[in-house]
């Protein structure tokens, strides 16, 4: 949820980290800002999609002093110091920046030392030797890769994390305006592809975020323009606009140019002539793999949506795991950005489609954003779903909270506490605040059967201090500033929760009328609460039991995202100083032989989730690691309707299709995210003939052995 790091932040002098007085900017809070026209309109998407409003204080005084003010600010806290003079469009961008897990400016000096020569756009813009890239990127197995569509279904279980060393395009620090291109922008016929509308779109994007001046991003923009030319959205906008908005969302969380480029191209494989190889040639394997990953995710998501698969909790759980495990976490990030923009423009679709999308988003994508720790997207997705799925409750809640929300309250509460702490000589790492989102309030009311007046954490502050002693001292300060609500003090430091969660919680009354929850913890405790056993995503998912595989996968995915997105990387400085929580191995330099790296085909002990489509019905099935297609077939087993009276498989099972291609080897190992079709589209009339042929083979003794022991399937 909150805040605070950008490269500009790291470039600020360490002395300013915790001690500088901060002016808190005002901000647009859709729910609370009564002056906002959008807030009062029931149909306003803005009011429902607004993220929580995190406000942060902590060494940000020089945050906006960098020359790259726009990009650095865009990837920083939404509500930190000195944004008053920003343009309204930039402020719009900033709305997207309230991120969950980050509050740390603990070692800016280190980052400064490490990164101050780098592009302000991304700390990871440095060139990375190609030896870091996993070999699979270029040495592709040809057996299942004939044609573009088959590519979509191949090789997705590559190292989810190997990809984190993939920065082919990251080295570009070239910053260009639209008219300064150093490469030709012509199509195959030598026609200048820079259509006026595209030029305008790009110019506007460049005003909103510096990364759109990056040469590779501009090139991708024009490739996307070519690919989607003539294609319109249901809203009537050119399709290209969706590509730009998707990329903008990514840029706003600090994603580097590789991810932004892939964001621009994310639909090209599905919607146009553009092939994997074309993207590979023009943008490198990193981008091509990401686009391919997004494409695969889109196809699975469509299948799930059409089959209403995620309405079953077990299958939804498997889908969350599958999505994160089968593709690079950055592909999930792009898919989330794509979905967020689609949700923002959902009004253009038919009511039936709106419901379907909203349902799937709530079941699959919001939880994924939660797992990745991208709180701002999670909040927006949930609020938009809420609005479409329960419009009456949504309206009611909006109206109710419009009357009680007070945005100024949090900013002034932060100021008050900041001053009091200073007076007492208590230093802190982070002081931040947030409004609870509309959907989160609604869910809490339902879950705990409470009225809105009984929710005490609609307004919340979080204070991160140096040590346990300071936690208690700060608690005393909090209680001296505001009056304590009796019975609401919880000391999870002395008495940690069963999952190890530690923090002090208290509820106080601001102005004697509005409850304010204050959480106080150390950096270590905060890290545990974000990344550790007590991680917030797990807390939010409830009493689920997770396999170690799932836990490891989410941990990795979060690390990948955190390390690739500056705005989410606030915890890095914490982590570097933490003894108890270390990344599974050192990012971003881990390589194939890193013992901790995720190797799906060797060290992975499963399980594997596979999409099975049978008689046009989709299910997500779990198999032990190393299961084969043959194992999948045998699961149906004799006695099932799909086995003929002779005990041999009927024709359909003899030609199962794996990832859209006929299976050539039944010993083929199933991989996370594989799609197995058990009902190939064979015309009915051919079945009888085919079964007879099988029967003849069987009679001649050429038949296959019993299920489960079938040997290789020809090839
Ligand atoms: N990361 C993490 N956060 C937690 C956990 N438990 C509680 N929290 C945070 O602490 C807040 C309040 O928790 P509690 O004080 O235990 O409150 P409660 O009794 O569950 O309910 P309320 O007082 O109604 O919020 C939650 O809203 C979370 O933000 C946990 O296990 N992990
Ligand atoms: N008092 C607080 N101050 C600052 N941030 C908070 C505070 N309480 C929760 N958060 C953060 O706000 C984000 C959204 O949390 P949300 O309000 O949806 O749920 P929660 O408060 O953690 O849990 P619950 O709804 O069960 O009480 C999370 O990232 C959470 O860590």
Automatic annotation (TrEMBL):
Residues 239-343 form the HD domain. It comes from the Eukaryota. Residues 30-51 have a biased composition (Low complexity). It is an enzyme of class 2 (transferase). Residues 30-53 are annotated as: Disordered. Its EC number is 2.7.6.5. Pfam families: HD_4, RelA_SpoT. InterPro entries: HD/PDEase_dom (IPR003607), HD_domain (IPR006674), NT_sf (IPR043519), RelA_SpoT (IPR007685). Keywords: GTP-binding, Nucleotide-binding, RNA-binding, Stress response. Belongs to the RelA/SpoT family. This is GTP diphosphokinase.
């Amino acid at each position: 949820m909150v805040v605070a790091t950008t490269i500009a932040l790291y470039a600020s002098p360490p002395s300013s980290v915790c001690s500088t007085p901060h002016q808190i900017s005002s901000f647009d809070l859709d729910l609370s800002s009564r002056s906002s026209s959008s807030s009062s309109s029931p149909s306003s998407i803005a009011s429902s999609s607004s993220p929580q409003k995190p406000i942060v204080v902590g060494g940000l005084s020089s945050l906006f002093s960098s020359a790259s003010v726009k990009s650095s600010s865009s990837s920083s806290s939404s509500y930190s110091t000195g944004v008053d003079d920003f343009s309204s469009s930039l402020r719009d961008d900033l709305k997207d920046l309230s991120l969950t897990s980050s509050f740390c400016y603990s070692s800016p000096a280190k980052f400064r030392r490490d990164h101050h020569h780098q592009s302000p756009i991304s700390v990871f813009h440095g060139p990375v030797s190609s030896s870091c890239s996993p070999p699979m990127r270029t040495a592709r197995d040809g057996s299942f890769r004939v044609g573009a569509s088959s590519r979509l279904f191949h090789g997705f279980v590559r190292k989810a994390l190997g990809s984190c060393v993939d920065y082919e395009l990251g080295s570009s620090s070239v910053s260009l305006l639209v008219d300064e291109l150093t490469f030709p922008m012509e199509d195959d016929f030598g026609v200048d592809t820079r259509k006026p509308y595209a030029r305008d779109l790009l110019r506007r994007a460049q005003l909103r975020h510096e990364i759109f001046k990056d040469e590779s991003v501009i090139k991708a923009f024009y490739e996307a323009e070519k690919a989607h030319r003539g294609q319109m959205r249901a809203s009537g906008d050119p399709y290209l606009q969706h590509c730009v908005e998707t990329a903008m969302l990514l840029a706003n969380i600090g994603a580097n140019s590789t991810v932004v480029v892939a964001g621009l191209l994310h639909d090209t494989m599905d919607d146009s002539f553009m092939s994997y190889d074309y993207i590979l040639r023009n943008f490198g394997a990193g981008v091509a793999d990401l686009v391919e990953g997004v494409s695969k995710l889109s196809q699975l998501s469509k299948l799930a949506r059409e089959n209403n698969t995620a309405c079953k909790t077990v299958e939804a759980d498997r889908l969350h795991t599958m999505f994160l495990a089968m593709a690079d976490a950055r592909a999930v990030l792009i898919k989330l950005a794509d979905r967020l923009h689609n949700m923002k423009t959902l009004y253009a679709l038919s009511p039936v489609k709106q419901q379907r999308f909203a349902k799937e988003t709530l079941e699959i994508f919001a939880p994924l954003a939660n797992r990745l720790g991208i709180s701002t997207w999670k909040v927006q997705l949930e609020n938009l779903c809420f609005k479409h799925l329960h419009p009456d409750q949504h309206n009611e809640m909006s109206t109710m909270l419009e009357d009680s929300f007070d945005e100024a309250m949090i900013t002034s509460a932060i100021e008050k506490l900041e001053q009091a702490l200073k007076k007492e000589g208590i230093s802190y790492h982070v002081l931040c605040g947030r409004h609870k989102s509309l959907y989160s309030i609604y869910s809490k009311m339902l879950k705990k059967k409470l009225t809105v007046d009984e929710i005490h954490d609609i307004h919340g502050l979080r204070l991160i201090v140096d040590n346990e002693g300071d936690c208690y001292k700060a608690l005393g300060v909090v209680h001296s500033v505001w009056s304590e609500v009796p019975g609401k003090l919880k000391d999870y430091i002395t008495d940690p929760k069963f999952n190890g969660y530690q923090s002090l919680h208290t509820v106080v009354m601001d102005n004697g009328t509005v409850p304010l929850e204050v959480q106080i913890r150390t950096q270590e405790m905060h890290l545990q609460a974000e990344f550790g056993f007590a991680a917030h995503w797990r807390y939010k998912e409830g009493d689920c039991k997770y396999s170690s595989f799932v836990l490891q996968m989410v941990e990795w995915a979060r690390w990948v995202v955190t390390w690739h997105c500056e705005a989410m990387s606030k915890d890095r400085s914490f982590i570097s100083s933490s003894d108890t929580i270390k990344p599974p191995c050192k990012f971003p330099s881990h390589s194939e032989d890193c013992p901790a790296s995720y190797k799906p085909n060797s060290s992975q002990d499963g399980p594997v989730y596979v999409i099975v489509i049978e008689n046009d019905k989709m299910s997500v099935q779990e198999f032990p690691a190393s299961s084969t297609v043959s194992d999948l077939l045998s699961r149906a087993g004799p006695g099932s309707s799909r086995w003929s009276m002779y005990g041999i498989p009927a024709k359909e099972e003899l030609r199962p299709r794996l990832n859209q291609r006929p299976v050539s080897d039944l010993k083929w190992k199933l991989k996370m995210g594989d799609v197995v079709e058990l009902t190939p589209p064979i015309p009915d009339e051919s079945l009888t003939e085919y079964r007879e042929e099988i029967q003849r083979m069987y009679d001649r003794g050429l038949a296959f052995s019993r299920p489960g022991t079938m040997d290789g399937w020809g090839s």
